[in-house]
Design goal:
The chain is α/β, with parallel strands linked by helices. The protein has two domains: about 10-140 and about 265-290, Response regulator (Rossmann fold, 3-Layer(aba) Sandwich); about 145-260, Rossmann fold (3-Layer(aba) Sandwich). The chain has eleven helices and nine strands. Helix 2 (about 40-55) packs parallel to helix 10 and helix 5 crosses helix 6. About 25% of the residues are buried.
Length: about 300
């Protein structure tokens, strides 16, 4: 599985509304343009197969990049986005698990053209309604999970805990928010120790990463911190939780590699079905609804 979580993005490009201000109700084809979704094609194709079997009043045409590895590059992605906008198809949809830097530019471009868009991005940097008024979240933000973490601490009466977070705004903002959330009642909670971790994914940095993790965990052990809330990516999680039990690392990685081959991307699957139900509900076949969605 990739170290970067899938961020399923679907951007509804109502080209005739934007450029020609009319819509053909007899048109039932939707072009699905995909970027960076190589690992998610099995899930996407599975959803498309189910939709076709139900004989819904809709035809999805998948314009894939399955055999082309597109770099996580802003220029390449924005160019493809503009090409999609320039087409005359009734409805185009862009599905992507692009990296964070690319998604932010997609969001800005879509906002400029007043194009409604939504993806399963949980980064706080894209949560500003003022900056991204046409952005609709379909999963909770990382910040939203802090309320659950707080309730978990309350449920088990864990009043003393530590925080570990990966360097980078995506993780530091969430850690700071949780600290502020628990700092409201200092009599109930004590954030005993907070540590950030820098991690380099290249193989030559493996020993340095292991050394840093050992030092970090020793700090928590010295302070006798038993409850640790961590926020980092999947690669660091694999390395971190196996660090104290090196004899189990190989067995764990072997099991993990088997999961990779059978990976099911729920976000990609749900995205395709969300589009199908949205169209089948006739919402997209009504010009007034489209104008309302674009204008509001």
């Amino acid at each position: 599985m990739s170290t970067k979580s899938f961020r399923s993005c679907f951007i509804l490009l109502f080209n005739l509304i934007i450029f020609n201000n009319y819509i053909n109700a007899d048109q039932h084809k939707i072009i699905l343009n995909s970027l960076f979704t190589q690992s998610s094609y099995p899930s996407i194709n599975f959803a498309l197969k189910q939709i076709r079997s139900l004989q819904m009043d809709i035809v999805f045409e998948l314009n894939t990049t399955e055999d082309i590895i597109i770099p996580c590059d802003v220029g390449t992605t924005v160019k493809i986005l503009f090409n999609i906008i320039n087409r005359t198809n009734l409805l185009n949809v862009l599905i992507s698990d692009a990296c964070q830097s690319v998604l932010s530019y997609i969001a800005e471009a879509a906002t400029y053209f007043h194009i409604p868009f939504s993806f399963t991005e949980s980064d706080l940097s894209l949560s500003s309604i003022d900056c991204y008024p046409f952005f609709y979240h379909i999963v909770p933000s990382d910040r939203g999970h802090n309320l659950v973490r707080k309730q978990l601490l309350q449920y088990f009466n864990w009043t003393r805990f530590g925080l570990i977070y990966q360097h980078g705004s995506k993780y530091t903002w969430v850690a700071n928010d949780l600290s502020n959330l628990t700092a409201i009642d200092k009599k109930q909670w004590e954030v005993n120790l907070t540590r950030g971790i820098a991690y380099r994914h290249e193989l030559e940095w493996h020993d340095d990463n292991a050394k840093n993790m050992k030092g970090l965990l020793n700090d928590f052990e010295t302070r006798d911190v038993r409850i640790i809330i961590a926020n980092f990516n999947q690669t660091i999680a694999t390395h971190m939780f196996c660090h104290e039990q090196p004899s189990y690392v190989l067995d764990y990685l072997e099991q993990f590699s088997k999961f990779e081959r059978n990976y099911f991307d729920a976000y990609a699957y749900d995205t395709i079905w969300s589009l199908a139900y949205l169209y089948q509900s006739k919402f997209l076949s009504n010009e007034t609804n489209l104008k309302t969605l674009v204008d509001n």
